[in-house]
Amino acid sequence: MSDASPYDALLLLSFGGPEGPDDVMPFLENVTRGRGIPRERLEAVAEHYLHFGGKSPINDQNRELLAQLRRELDARGLDGLPLLWGNRNWEPYVTDVLREAHEAGARRVLTVFTSAYSSYSSCRQYREDLARALDVLAGEGRALEVDKIRHYFNHPAFTEVNGAAVADALAGLPEPVRDGARVVFVTHSVPTAMDDASGPPAAGGGAYVRQHRDVAAEVARVAGERAGRALEWDLVYCSRSGPPSQPWLEPDVNDHLRALHAGGTSAVVVAPIGFVSDHMEVKFDLDTEAAETAEEIGLPFARAATVGASERFVAGLVDLVQERAEVARGGRPPQPVSGGLGPSHVVCPVDCCRNLRADLPAATGEDYVAPAGV
To answer: What tens digit of pLDDT does each residue of 271-280 get?
Structure first.
């Protein structure tokens, strides 16, 4: 099938990141606006970016992902579908990109988030930004409709590529410690209250952790089959940024590495399943800080690759684009999944991944009311 109707454009929507040292503080101010983050904390985070020359790796990774998406779309006969890239926190800003799309004739846009899981920060916040952009465009007399693909954390393309990456990392460890190596799956920490509110209310919350644990089990299974043994694993967190008084998901990856070493673990593979590409949380929190922790305590360490722009992952994203288009046309296509959870909702339910600070409009959901005239 090579039909993307009723969609006349595809948008890759990402977090954004600075392109140079002068961009770092303005970017961080965009990210944290309205949250009361102390200047000292922003300056500390800025050092992470400046450590890599002030440029976030996420931008070039998105450009590569766009190139591979274009290749896959063209190969499937979707060469006439415009492919767009917009960001939440840095250029190209999503409002500007959607305005340009409307000027080019787009009226219904399908969106792919560079985030695989359910939570406020990994889904609803993107939806709020889309709603804000649509409101601005409606004020300019530009009527535009936006949908998104379903969450892809448990799509076979995502888990299979991660499983192969873990197996490759295991194979790269020194042979004497390989058989005793443990897999440490890592994702971005969030406040426990955010996890409690993640997912549809009817499911009782906790979707963020539940989805990650499901993915971890499936990735460990895939990697274990390749390695020829059952793999022991843990789920840990990185990049905590809240005040000490606020509970966040734990344990921290560095604390956990020390605990594993003290308990006699021979080696670790650190697998960043919470991230689609090697952006700052991977390059600094894992490749720099966690690797330094492992070296300090003498724990053999290998880091598994992210899915990035791999051919299998990109093909899976395009499968989801075509699946969502068929749903929009009234069809009921197959929804392949791996692991123990079923396919995610196509349209976000009311109060899904609720914003605990404010009740703001969020596009692509059952509770979204489009601006007048849209």
So the answer is: 999 999 998 8
Q: Are the beta carbons of 84 and 9 closer than 8 angstroms?
A: yes
Q: Which residues contact 197 (CB under 8 A, 6 or more apart)?
A: 120, 205, 353, 354, 356
Model pLDDT for residues 322-356, shown as the tens digit of each residue: 999 999 999 999 999 999 999 999 999 999 999 99
The pTM (predicted TM-score) of the whole model is: 0.95
Q: Please name the residue ranges forming H helices in the chain.
A: 24-32, 39-50, 58-75, 94-103, 125-139, 156-171, 175-178, 192-196, 207-227, 253-262, 280, 291-297, 311-328
pLDDT for 32 equals 82
Cβ contacts of 329 within 8 Å, gap of 6 or more: 5, 6
Identify residue 119 by its one-letter amino acid code. Answer: S
Tokens of 189: 């920490």
Closest CA to 14 of 147, 100, 112, 105: 112
Question: C-alpha 219: how far from its chain's center?
Answer: 16
Q: What is the DSSP letter of 202?
A: G
Q: Could you tell me if 184 and 212 are in contact, meaning their C-beta atoms sit under 8 angstroms apart?
A: no
Residues 6+ apart with CB under 8 A from 365: 127, 347, 348, 349, 350, 352
Residue 304's identity, in one-letter code, is A
At which residue do the structure tokens 């917009």 appear?
A: 86
- Of 95, 107, 178, 200, nearest in space to 139 by CA: 95
Q: Which domains does the chain have, with CATH numbers?
A: 9-152+309-328 (3.40.50.1400), 156-303 (3.40.50.1400)
Length of the chain (residues)? 374
Residue 274, C-beta contacts closer than 8 angstroms, at least 6 positions apart: 116, 117, 185, 186, 187, 188, 212
Percentage helix, strand, coil for the chain under 3-state DSSP, each rounded to 5: 45, 15, 40
- φ, ψ of residue 194 to 5 degrees: the values are -70, -40
**Cβ contact 163:222 at 8 Å:** yes
Q: Is 253 left (phi over 0), alpha (psi -120 to 50) or beta?
A: alpha
For 55-96, write each residue's pLDDT tens digit: 999 999 999 999 999 999 999 999 999 999 999 999 999 999
Residue 309: both structure tokens together: 């722009």
Contact 152, 320 (CB under 8 A): yes
